[in-house]
Amino acid sequence: METVQPPPPLESHAEQHGLQLRWLLSWKSLLLATLGLLLLVWLNYTPGGLLGKADAIGYAVCHRIDVRSFHMGVRQLPLCARCSGMYLGTLLGLAFLAVIGPRRGGMPSRRLLAVFGMLAVAFAIDGLNSYLHFFPNAPGMYEPNNTLRLLTGTGVGLGIAAVVYPAFNQTAWKQWDPRPALGSMRQLVVLIGLGLVLDLLILSENSLILYPLALLSAGGELILLSIVYGMVLMMLFKAENKLQHLSQLIWPLAGGLMLAIIQIGLLDFGRYLLTGTWAGFKLG
Q1: For residues 178-206, b (16+ Cβ closer than 10 Å) or e, as one string?
Q2: Are the C-beta atoms of residues 195 and 158 closer than 8 Å to each other?
Q3: What's the CA gap between 92 and 89, in Å, rounded?
Q4: N- to C-terminal Cα distance for the chain?
């Protein structure tokens, strides 16, 4: 005759819960301590001032060639024209999608993806044409300029946001909205219109406007890396589709920020060892 096992005592449940709570507190404390230490080291060894820190973020991913960048007077922006457009466009797109479609995880329709595909092709063509102009005898298609670099960079940035935003929602939330984050051509037209307004603000070359945009461009790079790394961490630790409240975003994004700072710091260190300067690459 099968014997019925008595239920475990209440104390064992309490002990297990206590162990889980202590484990959670320990890894969260370790994460915050590691993140704080990395930030202190990075802040200590990078150029001073807000724009100096923004320069160091851009330095990790961008050539920062002077003539291919916008300026506040004589002061070069942290990222070149193309990268400024790309990261500001990404930041704009993420903010726009968060407003119109909270927690929406559906990808854009094929029609909208086709538009983003054309913007990516324009980005590639203009980038290749700009690259060919490094070589005096290379057959360039047209004379490159910072306005085209900015416009094509912004277009790609909007496309990055349109893909990364729903992918993050699919990964993070326990209950995510399956509707497309960017649901119609009308919304896409509004988003592109906002991107053009953003580009016009940059092209105004007004220092009062460019200063916050310079900081936001570097912030866009850091935010994008943090989101992508946050998704990777959730997948690696089997923590997908567990979040229910906005406050719970702090942990995957803090982990993503930690990895982003490590990447930026290593790239900064390697580039500085090779060049010995925080300035951009020189032409000629």
Answers
A1: eebbbbeeebbeebbebbeebbeebeeee
A2: yes
A3: 5
A4: 90
State the pairing for strand pair 71-72/104-106. unpaired
- Residue for token digits 């910072």? 146
Residue 44 within any structural domain of the chain: no
Is 260 within a domain?
yes
Residue linked to tokens 């922006």: 77
* pLDDT value for 226: 97
Range of the domain at 196: 54-270
Structural domain total, the chain: 1
Dist CA 186 CA 108 (whole Å)? 13
Answer whether residue 15 shows pLDDT above 80: no
Q: How far is CA 5 from CA 2, 8, 67, 195, 238, in A?
A: 9, 9, 78, 66, 32
Q: Which two tokens stand for residue 146?
A: 């910072």
d(C-alpha 130, C-alpha 115), whole Å:
23
Cα–Cα distance measured from residue 229 to residue 231, given in angstroms and rounded to the nearest whole number: 5
How far, in Å, CA of 70 to CA of 66, rounded? 8
* 168: pLDDT strictly greater than 50: yes
Q: What is the pLDDT, as a whole number, of residue 8?
A: 53
CA–CA distance, 114 with 73 (Å, rounded to integer): 39
